[in-house]
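User: quick one, sequence for these tokens?
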């Protein structure tokens, strides 16, 4: 499958992507994960991106497009991919359209995850992430807690609250989403590619997406 996952921070894009990946071997490409890896490795891209990320602001479009144009040409994308957290702005969506035309890739559709705001806020403030860069398992202190001592159930590393998951950064990320990313809903509707799923439970959403793919 070749899908874009659209939705506010905390809408569950990462969880839905992981479940869809299991369904047919397509790979998840998360720009947030790629950027966090670049920050950790201390690359030039990571150095330029870190300040924006910590504040919950968007990294400039040019840096994202350079990174994604390379990523989409890697061999593992041929089987299919789920774009998680990209595109995030209209200029990114327009640039992606050009890149896909050039690489002769066409999308199945764009999945818009529609989640009530109170659920999103609750999910973001209770989220914990495994600090081990090669694990990064995501927990929720209420519905899916890590071990009692706060360590990851998968690898035993400490779990942390990300810098961009403090209350101030979360409110900023939601504002940035409304201003810069929500307009993509209209963009992809105009392209005839948008499918909106009211998403409270990720497993139900994944079933509905797989059904839509078969139609
Ligand atoms: P995420 O894990 O998708 O919430 O991304 C974490 C942070 O990485 C965002 O708050 C942005 O600072 C940055 N980021 C991720 N994807 C993009 C993108 N497509 N465009 C600009 N910034 C991005």
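Assistant:
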């Amino acid at each position: 499958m070749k899908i874009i996952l659209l939705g506010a921070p905390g809408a569950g894009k990462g969880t839905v992507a992981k479940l869809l990946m299991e369904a047919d071997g397509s790979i998840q490409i998360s720009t947030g994960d790629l950027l966090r890896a670049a920050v950790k490795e201390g690359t030039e891209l990571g150095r330029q991106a870190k300040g924006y990320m910590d504040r919950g602001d968007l990294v400039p479009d040019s840096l994202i497009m350079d990174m994604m144009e390379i990523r989409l040409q890697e061999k593992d994308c041929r089987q299919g991919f789920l774009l998680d957290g990209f595109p995030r702005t209209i200029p990114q969506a327009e640039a992606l359209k050009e890149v896909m035309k050039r690489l002769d890739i066409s999308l199945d559709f764009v999945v818009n995850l529609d989640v009530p705001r109170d659920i999103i806020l609750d999910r973001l403030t209770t989220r914990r992430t495994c600090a081990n860069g090669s694990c990064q398992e995501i927990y929720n202190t209420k519905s899916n807690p890590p071990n009692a001592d706060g360590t990851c159930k998968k690898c035993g590393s400490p779990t942390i609250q990300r810098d961009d998951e403090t209350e101030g950064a979360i409110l900023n990320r939601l504002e940035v989403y409304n201003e810069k990313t929500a307009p993509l809903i209209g963009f992809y509707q105009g392209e005839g590619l948008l499918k909106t799923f009211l998403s409270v439970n990720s497993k139900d959403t994944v079933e509905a997406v797989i059904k839509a793919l078969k139609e």
